[in-house]
Design goal:
Layout (H helix, E strand, L loop, with lengths): L1 E2 L9 H13 L5 H13 L31 H14 L6 H15 L8 E2 L21 H9 L5 H8 L6 E3 L5 H4 L13 H8 L14 E3 L11 H7 L6 H5 L4 H12 L1 H15 L24
Antiparallel strand pairs: 1-2, 3-4
Helix pairs in contact: 1-3, 1-4, 2-4, 6-11, 6-12, 9-11
Length: 303
Protein backbone atom coordinates (compact mmCIF):
# COMPACT_ATOMS: atom_id res chain seq x y z
CA UNK A 1 0.00 0.00 0.00
CA UNK A 2 1.12 3.56 -0.64
CA UNK A 3 -0.17 7.11 -0.76
CA UNK A 4 -1.28 7.86 -4.31
CA UNK A 5 -1.61 4.19 -5.26
CA UNK A 6 -4.14 5.06 -7.96
CA UNK A 7 -2.31 8.05 -9.44
CA UNK A 8 -1.20 6.17 -12.55
CA UNK A 9 -4.22 3.91 -13.14
CA UNK A 10 -7.06 6.22 -12.04
CA UNK A 11 -5.72 9.68 -11.23
CA UNK A 12 -9.17 11.05 -10.36
CA UNK A 13 -10.04 8.20 -7.94
CA UNK A 14 -9.67 10.17 -4.71
CA UNK A 15 -11.38 13.27 -6.10
CA UNK A 16 -14.36 11.19 -7.27
CA UNK A 17 -14.84 9.78 -3.76
CA UNK A 18 -14.38 13.22 -2.23
CA UNK A 19 -17.04 14.67 -4.56
CA UNK A 20 -19.61 12.08 -3.53
CA UNK A 21 -18.91 12.56 0.19
CA UNK A 22 -18.95 16.36 -0.07
CA UNK A 23 -22.31 16.23 -1.83
CA UNK A 24 -23.92 14.01 0.83
CA UNK A 25 -22.32 15.84 3.76
CA UNK A 26 -24.02 19.04 2.63
CA UNK A 27 -27.39 17.54 3.58
CA UNK A 28 -26.37 15.00 6.22
CA UNK A 29 -23.95 16.14 8.93
CA UNK A 30 -24.19 12.72 10.59
CA UNK A 31 -22.33 11.11 7.67
CA UNK A 32 -18.86 11.17 9.30
CA UNK A 33 -20.11 9.12 12.25
CA UNK A 34 -21.78 6.60 9.94
CA UNK A 35 -18.66 6.09 7.83
CA UNK A 36 -16.32 5.93 10.83
CA UNK A 37 -18.47 3.15 12.25
CA UNK A 38 -18.54 1.30 8.94
CA UNK A 39 -14.75 1.57 8.60
CA UNK A 40 -14.18 0.33 12.16
CA UNK A 41 -16.65 -2.56 11.82
CA UNK A 42 -15.07 -3.56 8.51
CA UNK A 43 -11.46 -3.49 9.73
CA UNK A 44 -12.15 -5.38 12.97
CA UNK A 45 -13.67 -8.34 11.10
CA UNK A 46 -11.37 -10.09 8.60
CA UNK A 47 -9.32 -6.90 8.20
CA UNK A 48 -10.04 -3.81 6.07
CA UNK A 49 -11.28 -5.78 3.09
CA UNK A 50 -14.74 -4.36 2.37
CA UNK A 51 -16.40 -7.55 3.60
CA UNK A 52 -18.99 -5.54 5.57
CA UNK A 53 -20.46 -4.36 2.25
CA UNK A 54 -21.38 -7.83 0.96
CA UNK A 55 -25.07 -8.73 0.95
CA UNK A 56 -26.46 -12.05 2.15
CA UNK A 57 -26.85 -14.46 -0.77
CA UNK A 58 -28.54 -17.83 -0.45
CA UNK A 59 -27.26 -19.74 2.58
CA UNK A 60 -24.37 -17.34 3.17
CA UNK A 61 -25.52 -14.91 5.87
CA UNK A 62 -23.15 -11.95 5.63
CA UNK A 63 -21.56 -9.66 8.23
CA UNK A 64 -24.30 -7.07 7.65
CA UNK A 65 -26.82 -9.26 9.46
CA UNK A 66 -24.87 -9.39 12.75
CA UNK A 67 -26.43 -7.45 15.63
CA UNK A 68 -23.76 -4.73 15.87
CA UNK A 69 -23.93 -4.15 12.10
CA UNK A 70 -27.69 -3.80 11.76
CA UNK A 71 -27.41 -0.09 12.57
CA UNK A 72 -24.43 0.49 10.28
CA UNK A 73 -25.50 2.74 7.41
CA UNK A 74 -24.08 4.53 4.38
CA UNK A 75 -23.91 1.51 2.08
CA UNK A 76 -25.73 3.34 -0.72
CA UNK A 77 -23.13 6.13 -0.60
CA UNK A 78 -20.33 3.61 -1.08
CA UNK A 79 -22.37 2.17 -3.98
CA UNK A 80 -22.65 5.63 -5.54
CA UNK A 81 -18.91 6.24 -5.32
CA UNK A 82 -18.21 2.78 -6.71
CA UNK A 83 -20.54 3.32 -9.69
CA UNK A 84 -18.77 6.58 -10.58
CA UNK A 85 -15.37 4.94 -10.20
CA UNK A 86 -16.38 1.98 -12.36
CA UNK A 87 -17.53 4.41 -15.03
CA UNK A 88 -14.22 6.29 -14.94
CA UNK A 89 -11.80 3.40 -14.28
CA UNK A 90 -13.40 -0.05 -14.49
CA UNK A 91 -12.12 -2.69 -12.06
CA UNK A 92 -9.37 -0.52 -10.59
CA UNK A 93 -10.46 0.94 -7.23
CA UNK A 94 -11.38 -1.46 -4.45
CA UNK A 95 -14.45 -1.16 -2.25
CA UNK A 96 -12.18 -1.45 0.79
CA UNK A 97 -10.29 1.66 -0.32
CA UNK A 98 -13.55 3.51 -0.99
CA UNK A 99 -14.60 3.00 2.66
CA UNK A 100 -11.23 4.26 3.92
CA UNK A 101 -11.17 7.28 1.57
CA UNK A 102 -14.81 8.18 2.23
CA UNK A 103 -14.19 8.08 5.98
CA UNK A 104 -11.09 10.26 5.64
CA UNK A 105 -12.98 12.87 3.61
CA UNK A 106 -16.00 12.90 5.92
CA UNK A 107 -13.83 13.39 9.01
CA UNK A 108 -12.12 16.38 7.39
CA UNK A 109 -15.45 17.95 6.40
CA UNK A 110 -16.57 17.73 10.06
CA UNK A 111 -13.49 19.67 11.17
CA UNK A 112 -11.12 16.78 11.70
CA UNK A 113 -7.59 16.29 10.38
CA UNK A 114 -6.65 16.19 6.73
CA UNK A 115 -4.30 13.28 6.17
CA UNK A 116 -2.67 11.38 3.32
CA UNK A 117 -4.07 7.88 3.21
CA UNK A 118 -2.19 4.86 1.89
CA UNK A 119 -4.32 2.94 -0.62
CA UNK A 120 -3.98 -0.33 -2.49
CA UNK A 121 -6.28 -2.52 -0.38
CA UNK A 122 -8.03 -5.29 -2.25
CA UNK A 123 -11.48 -6.73 -1.56
CA UNK A 124 -12.15 -9.92 0.35
CA UNK A 125 -14.41 -12.69 -0.94
CA UNK A 126 -15.65 -13.89 2.47
CA UNK A 127 -18.37 -12.27 4.56
CA UNK A 128 -20.01 -14.32 7.29
CA UNK A 129 -22.10 -13.37 10.30
CA UNK A 130 -20.11 -15.98 12.24
CA UNK A 131 -16.91 -13.92 11.90
CA UNK A 132 -18.33 -10.82 13.60
CA UNK A 133 -16.89 -10.39 17.10
CA UNK A 134 -16.68 -6.69 17.91
CA UNK A 135 -15.83 -4.93 21.18
CA UNK A 136 -19.09 -3.71 22.70
CA UNK A 137 -20.23 -0.57 24.56
CA UNK A 138 -20.39 -2.37 27.92
CA UNK A 139 -16.80 -3.63 27.71
CA UNK A 140 -14.46 -2.65 30.50
CA UNK A 141 -11.26 -0.87 29.51
CA UNK A 142 -9.20 -4.04 29.97
CA UNK A 143 -11.55 -6.05 27.72
CA UNK A 144 -11.58 -3.37 25.02
CA UNK A 145 -7.79 -3.02 25.23
CA UNK A 146 -7.42 -6.76 24.66
CA UNK A 147 -9.67 -6.59 21.60
CA UNK A 148 -7.66 -3.71 20.15
CA UNK A 149 -4.34 -5.37 20.99
CA UNK A 150 -5.54 -8.43 19.10
CA UNK A 151 -5.63 -6.20 16.00
CA UNK A 152 -2.17 -4.76 16.63
CA UNK A 153 -3.44 -1.53 18.18
CA UNK A 154 -2.06 -0.05 21.41
CA UNK A 155 -3.95 1.31 24.40
CA UNK A 156 -3.15 4.82 23.15
CA UNK A 157 -4.56 3.92 19.72
CA UNK A 158 -7.74 2.69 21.37
CA UNK A 159 -8.34 5.86 23.39
CA UNK A 160 -7.63 8.01 20.32
CA UNK A 161 -9.93 5.96 18.07
CA UNK A 162 -12.72 6.08 20.66
CA UNK A 163 -12.39 9.84 20.21
CA UNK A 164 -14.41 9.26 17.03
CA UNK A 165 -17.36 9.30 19.44
CA UNK A 166 -17.02 13.10 19.25
CA UNK A 167 -19.57 12.65 16.45
CA UNK A 168 -22.51 10.29 16.20
CA UNK A 169 -25.23 8.82 18.33
CA UNK A 170 -26.00 5.70 20.33
CA UNK A 171 -29.33 3.94 20.66
CA UNK A 172 -30.74 3.96 24.19
CA UNK A 173 -30.60 0.17 24.30
CA UNK A 174 -26.79 0.41 24.40
CA UNK A 175 -26.71 2.46 27.61
CA UNK A 176 -30.14 2.51 29.31
CA UNK A 177 -28.87 0.12 31.99
CA UNK A 178 -26.63 3.00 33.15
CA UNK A 179 -29.75 5.08 33.76
CA UNK A 180 -32.04 2.60 35.49
CA UNK A 181 -30.27 -0.50 36.75
CA UNK A 182 -26.50 -0.30 36.54
CA UNK A 183 -24.94 -3.72 37.13
CA UNK A 184 -28.10 -4.87 38.94
CA UNK A 185 -28.06 -2.01 41.46
CA UNK A 186 -31.56 -0.74 40.55
CA UNK A 187 -29.93 2.70 40.42
CA UNK A 188 -28.07 4.84 37.90
CA UNK A 189 -24.36 4.49 37.19
CA UNK A 190 -22.67 6.73 39.79
CA UNK A 191 -20.02 7.70 37.26
CA UNK A 192 -22.64 9.59 35.21
CA UNK A 193 -23.56 13.18 36.10
CA UNK A 194 -26.94 12.97 37.91
CA UNK A 195 -28.29 15.88 35.84
CA UNK A 196 -27.43 14.01 32.65
CA UNK A 197 -29.18 10.92 34.03
CA UNK A 198 -32.38 12.95 34.44
CA UNK A 199 -32.06 14.39 30.92
CA UNK A 200 -31.46 10.97 29.36
CA UNK A 201 -34.34 9.34 31.25
CA UNK A 202 -36.63 11.80 29.44
CA UNK A 203 -35.35 10.35 26.16
CA UNK A 204 -34.81 6.68 26.95
CA UNK A 205 -37.53 4.37 28.26
CA UNK A 206 -36.66 1.92 31.02
CA UNK A 207 -35.53 -1.48 29.72
CA UNK A 208 -38.37 -3.02 31.76
CA UNK A 209 -41.05 -0.79 30.21
CA UNK A 210 -43.40 -2.02 27.49
CA UNK A 211 -42.06 0.62 25.09
CA UNK A 212 -40.54 -0.68 21.86
CA UNK A 213 -39.02 2.70 21.03
CA UNK A 214 -35.24 2.84 20.92
CA UNK A 215 -34.35 6.53 20.49
CA UNK A 216 -30.83 7.84 20.00
CA UNK A 217 -28.73 10.31 21.95
CA UNK A 218 -25.59 12.22 20.95
CA UNK A 219 -22.34 10.64 22.19
CA UNK A 220 -20.82 14.12 22.53
CA UNK A 221 -23.28 16.26 24.45
CA UNK A 222 -21.51 19.49 23.50
CA UNK A 223 -20.37 19.83 19.84
CA UNK A 224 -22.28 16.86 18.49
CA UNK A 225 -21.44 17.26 14.78
CA UNK A 226 -17.93 18.72 15.07
CA UNK A 227 -14.88 16.48 14.93
CA UNK A 228 -12.95 17.93 17.86
CA UNK A 229 -11.61 17.00 21.31
CA UNK A 230 -14.86 17.90 23.11
CA UNK A 231 -15.57 14.20 23.66
CA UNK A 232 -12.69 13.97 26.14
CA UNK A 233 -13.78 17.14 27.92
CA UNK A 234 -17.27 15.70 28.24
CA UNK A 235 -15.85 12.55 29.82
CA UNK A 236 -14.14 14.70 32.45
CA UNK A 237 -17.57 16.16 33.27
CA UNK A 238 -19.04 12.66 33.69
CA UNK A 239 -21.01 13.10 30.47
CA UNK A 240 -19.88 9.90 28.76
CA UNK A 241 -22.89 8.12 27.27
CA UNK A 242 -21.45 4.64 26.78
CA UNK A 243 -19.92 2.75 29.68
CA UNK A 244 -16.64 2.12 27.82
CA UNK A 245 -16.31 5.85 27.13
CA UNK A 246 -16.80 6.97 30.73
CA UNK A 247 -14.50 4.26 32.07
CA UNK A 248 -11.60 5.81 30.15
CA UNK A 249 -11.47 8.54 32.82
CA UNK A 250 -11.46 6.14 35.77
CA UNK A 251 -9.05 3.48 34.53
CA UNK A 252 -5.50 4.25 35.65
CA UNK A 253 -4.12 3.08 32.30
CA UNK A 254 -6.17 5.52 30.19
CA UNK A 255 -6.98 8.50 32.43
CA UNK A 256 -3.80 10.37 31.51
CA UNK A 257 -4.42 9.98 27.78
CA UNK A 258 -7.93 11.43 28.21
CA UNK A 259 -6.50 14.40 30.13
CA UNK A 260 -3.91 15.04 27.42
CA UNK A 261 -6.45 14.89 24.59
CA UNK A 262 -8.98 17.03 26.47
CA UNK A 263 -6.43 19.81 26.90
CA UNK A 264 -5.02 19.88 23.37
CA UNK A 265 -7.20 19.69 20.29
CA UNK A 266 -4.26 19.84 17.88
CA UNK A 267 -2.61 16.87 19.59
CA UNK A 268 -5.86 14.92 19.30
CA UNK A 269 -6.28 15.80 15.63
CA UNK A 270 -2.76 14.68 14.72
CA UNK A 271 -2.99 11.59 16.91
CA UNK A 272 -6.31 10.58 15.38
CA UNK A 273 -4.91 10.77 11.85
CA UNK A 274 -2.08 8.44 12.83
CA UNK A 275 -4.36 6.02 14.66
CA UNK A 276 -6.95 5.68 11.92
CA UNK A 277 -4.27 5.19 9.26
CA UNK A 278 -2.90 2.39 11.46
CA UNK A 279 -6.38 0.91 11.89
CA UNK A 280 -6.84 1.04 8.13
CA UNK A 281 -3.84 -1.27 7.72
CA UNK A 282 -5.36 -4.13 9.73
CA UNK A 283 -5.32 -7.40 7.79
CA UNK A 284 -5.29 -5.76 4.37
CA UNK A 285 -5.23 -7.81 1.18
CA UNK A 286 -2.70 -6.57 -1.39
CA UNK A 287 -0.96 -7.69 -4.54
CA UNK A 288 -2.62 -10.80 -5.94
CA UNK A 289 -4.69 -11.47 -2.83
CA UNK A 290 -8.40 -10.73 -2.90
CA UNK A 291 -9.99 -8.97 -5.86
CA UNK A 292 -11.37 -5.64 -7.07
CA UNK A 293 -15.13 -6.08 -6.78
CA UNK A 294 -17.14 -4.48 -9.58
CA UNK A 295 -20.20 -4.33 -7.30
CA UNK A 296 -19.36 -3.77 -3.63
CA UNK A 297 -22.35 -5.85 -2.51
CA UNK A 298 -21.42 -9.03 -4.41
CA UNK A 299 -18.16 -10.94 -4.85
CA UNK A 300 -17.02 -11.25 -8.45
CA UNK A 301 -18.01 -14.37 -10.37
CA UNK A 302 -15.09 -16.74 -10.69
CA UNK A 303 -13.95 -16.89 -14.30
Amino acid sequence: MQVGFYNAKCSQAESIVRGVITSHFATDKSLPAALLRMHFHDCFVMGCDGSILIDTVGNNVSEKEAGPNQTVRGFEIIDEAKAKLESACPSVVSCADIIALATRDAVFLAGGPQYNLPTGRRDGRVSSINNVNLPGPTFQVSQAAAAFANKGLTLQDMVILLGAHTVGVAHCSFFSDRLYNFQGSEAADPSMDPNLVVTLKNVCPSPTSSSTNDPTEFLDQNTSFAFDNSYYQQLQLKHGILQIDQELTSAVSTKGIVTNMASNGITFSKSFAGAIIKMGNIGVLTGKNGEIRTNCRVVNALS
